[in-house]
Amino acid sequence: MKTFNLAIILVMTLLMVSCEKESNQITNRKDYDAYLASKETKSIDFAKNEIDFWQKKFDAAPNQISYLSQIASNYSKLFEITGNINYIYKTEELLLQSNEALKYTQVGTIRALARNYITQHRFKEALVLANKALAIGEGKKATQKLLFDVQMELGNYAEAEKNLKAIQDPNEFDFLIRIAKWNDHLGDLPTAISLMEKAAKRAEKDENEGLKVWAYSNLGDMYGHAGQIKKSYNYYLKTLALEPHNSYALKGIAWIAFSHEKNTTEANRIINIISKKHNSPDFYLMKSEIAEYENNKEKKEKYMSNYFNMLQKNNYGVMYNKYNALIFADDTSTAEIALAIANQEIKNRPTPDSYDLLAWSYYNLGDYKKALEIAQKHVAGKSFEPELNYHLAMIYKSNKMSNLVQPIKEDLLTSTFELGPSFQQKIDQL
Predict the structure, then answer these.
(1) In the chain, ranges of CATH 1.25.40.10 domains
(2) pLDDT for the residue numbered 19
(3) Angle, helix 173-185 to helix 157-166, in steps of 10 degrees
(4) Radius of gyration of the chain (CA)
(5) CATH superfamily for domain 317-430
(6) What residues of the chain score a pLDDT lower than 50?
(7) Rounded Cα–Cα distance for residues 246 and 261 (Å)
(8) I need a labelling partner for 33 at 20 to 30 A (CA). Which of 58, 76, 135, 164 fits?
């Protein structure tokens, strides 16, 4: 009888392990392989044809300044599809030409240039333009939406909230996505998701494919942060069903394969394919993170070298300052460089994220008291980002404030998907 009971226990244990393994498996190559194989030429060809069309019209009638905005818009689309940074600078060049010709009197063209600066992380310049558009007065609501976006990036949260209240309309997509972002900033992720779901329904009701893609891809991201990985995956698939070349959604699926399923082979396969179509340094950072998890120092160094080579060959301005500061801060021999970048970021955008870079740089230089002073004043209680809170916990630990570490540790244990599998051991050691 004892032997029989033991056999039952063994079978039940094996079944439980099997079920756990099965539930951990979310991705299925059959779901997305067709999207990986698709060659995005239609949208690229269309944008290039549009550029040629409007350029010829402008050459024939140089006084028609509005044609420049049409050309700029299509260069911006090419950047979204290909990741080629030169398209962003071409967009800027055309919008500057257009605004100068119009003597900065047309709010639509001013706002377009401000959005270009947001993409480049030139937030203070974007704010100047947004205020210029506001002073003109025309299309005030659209300008207030822009002002909310810029103020959030700059960490001017009181001003951002004023603009959010000014555009309040619970039936409008643009308002819903912004109040979702606001609630996410406040740390209320369930409400943020609920509002983004409403935005998605609004886009569906309006049959607006572009807005559906925007809402679905963001829901994929948000559900991932909430630890609801299956829902995250399904929203990425919904995004791809509408836009097969969407690199954000494909990268999201690669992250699920890596962070949730620990399937580094599949994650690398996806990244290798999409990085050939969408040229971005981000992919080297992810490959480096995967190599770190695999304890492959040689590959990690190779991908980091590829990342910095790409930054050197292309002018990304300050767009990768945050990543660079974190990379340099983790090595005591380069922590001084991280400190300089962090100070630059604070000048550009004095947010909790930027101050975290400064505090983390001082921590890695061994100045724990300075790190604590900055973190307590500018980071603690001001952000719900897991990586910032991990840094905060490490700074508390170094200052022997263990009573403050444990609550953060417990919270971080629920954020391992977002942080990545390499963080699990770091969190355990807190």
Answers:
(1) 169-244, 317-430
(2) 41
(3) 150
(4) 24
(5) Tetratricopeptide repeat domain (1.25.40.10)
(6) 1-4, 6-11, 13-22
(7) 22
(8) 76
